[in-house]
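User: Hey, quick favor. My workstation is busy. Could you predict this chain's structure for me?
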Amino acid sequence: MLPSGKMTVRERRQSAASSSPPFDPIDAEAIRELIAVGAEFHSRGWSLATSSNYSVLLSREPMRLLVTASGKDKSRLTEADFVIVGEDGRSLAPTDERPSAETLLHVSIAKQPGVGAVLHTHSIWGTLLSDWQRDAGCVRLSGYEMLKGLDGVKSHETAIDVPVFDNTQDIPSLAAEIERRLSDPEQPLRYGFLIHRHGLYTWGRELAEARRHVEALEFLFEVVGRIDRRNFV
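Assistant: No problem, here it is.
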């Protein structure tokens, strides 16, 4: 212990680890993978400071969703920085950590068939495009080879719209709206959406696919933003 009564970095980590819930080997592997994702996304400017949150579906019945805890630096995630929540977004085990404030958005997406991981980023270009295209209601991505990085897209001659939702602190209402759109038979949400002046949400059947969707969409956001920014501002 330091003379001032403050804990050293090592002591803080040991204390956090001792207060975190135990994880079984499968859960621990998912944590290691999300720690790696956090470090990568931070290095690429997509998850700076304490922004962003990530989740992996551990089981569907009953729902067990591994999600990053609130307020964590994504470049320095540890095993103690994760929480397992149920369908109501609340922790399933005693822990000193709080789930991300946006956990219900992860839950709404993870309920959908074929979704095994959800990733949320705060990139510069995603944030700018969500602002520039707020009135249009979506960002259109069309004619780019990188679209083939999205599951099921076979040709660059494809157009997808990434919707832009208003930012709000009323996460339950936003989660309900997202859930309705995901199951909309006319225009279901596919691949992802943006929140105004906030960032991107995307998903995949497993973490590798969700990560690939982030990479493809973030590339496309930057291309569209660099080419068309004179039309937006």
